[in-house]
Specification:
This protein is an alpha/beta fold. Helix 1 packs across helix 4. The chain is built from eight helices and nine strands. The longest helix has 20 residues. Helix 7 links the parallel strand 7 and strand 8. The chain folds into two domains: 72 residues, Winged helix-like DNA-binding domain superfamily/Winged helix DNA-binding domain (Arc Repressor Mutant, subunit A, Orthogonal Bundle); 108 residues, NAD(P)-binding Rossmann-like Domain (Rossmann fold, 3-Layer(aba) Sandwich), CATH 3.40.50.720.
């Protein structure tokens, strides 16, 4: 079977999370593509196509068995086969991720954390001891780690990624504001907070314009201000 596109995978996770939350509130055995599409603002035809891509077929006028949908998605992603990851960069964001308890349903276990700050090495966060960066490569190799979570400053992210990939990591979850270069066969998933903030700013700016009008910052004169680089 051909790998599913990222947009399809993201929709499948939305279905999975919604059905999980819905099942926690009330007993529900079946759901139609129309009901699911209305709840998530997705065209019902697209819902049926997504489910068909993973072998799910609904029953006319009944819909889909909720348990079967969740099981099919869970098997597709391998959530029943936990995998270990290490986190590099035990700053504010890194420690928040270590303390977060919501990764287990998605198969992730963060088993070790690393930092180059001597004041942090040896301390504990959420039951995990922070190790020195000197121990990173050996730990990844010895424990067959396949995921590295990078929460370092931008200046250190590529070097950390190089160490992780050289040690056998096959996927990088990147929270640093920089584009990472990796060898073929290694997946990089970037989490840019700025993109989320930009979407929020766009929405609020449209509301402001609707309520107050374009205002004095509308483009009337030649542009003289270059793009400001993002703060790192």
């Amino acid at each position: 079977m051909e790998p599913l596109r990222r947009v399809v995978l993201e929709r499948l996770i939305r279905y999975y999370r919604y059905l999980g939350e819905l099942s926690a509130r009330k007993e529900i055995r079946t759901i139609t593509s129309a009901q699911l599409g209305a709840a998530l603002d997705i065209d019902p035809t697209q819902v049926r196509k997504d489910f068909g891509a993973i072998g799910l077929v609904g029953i006319s006028r009944v819909g889909y068995d909720v348990c079967e949908v969740c099981r099919a998605i869970r098997l597709l992603f391998g959530f029943d086969h936990p995998y270990d990851g290490v986190l590099v960069g035990a700053g504010h964001l890194g420690t928040a991720l270590l303390a977060y308890g919501g990764f287990a349903p998605f198969g992730l276990r963060i088993v070790a954390a690393f930092d180059n700050d001597p004041a942090k090495v040896g301390t504990q966060v959420a039951g995990l001891t922070i190790h020195s960066m000197d121990a990173l490569r050996a730990y990844v190799r010895d424990h067959n780690i396949r995921l590295g979570i990078v929460t370092t400053p931008a200046s250190a992210a590529q070097g950390v990624t190089d160490q992780l990939v050289a040690s056998g990591v096959k996927a990088i979850w990147n929270f640093s504001p920089v584009r990472l270069n990796v060898s073929p066969g290694v997946l990089v998933r970037n989490e840019h907070i700025s993109l989320g903030l930009a979407q929020i700013a766009y929405h609020l700016n449209r509301l402001r314009i609707q309520e107050q009008g374009p205002g004095p910052d509308s483009p009337k004169e030649p542009c003289r201000e270059p793009c400001a680089p993002p703060r790192r």
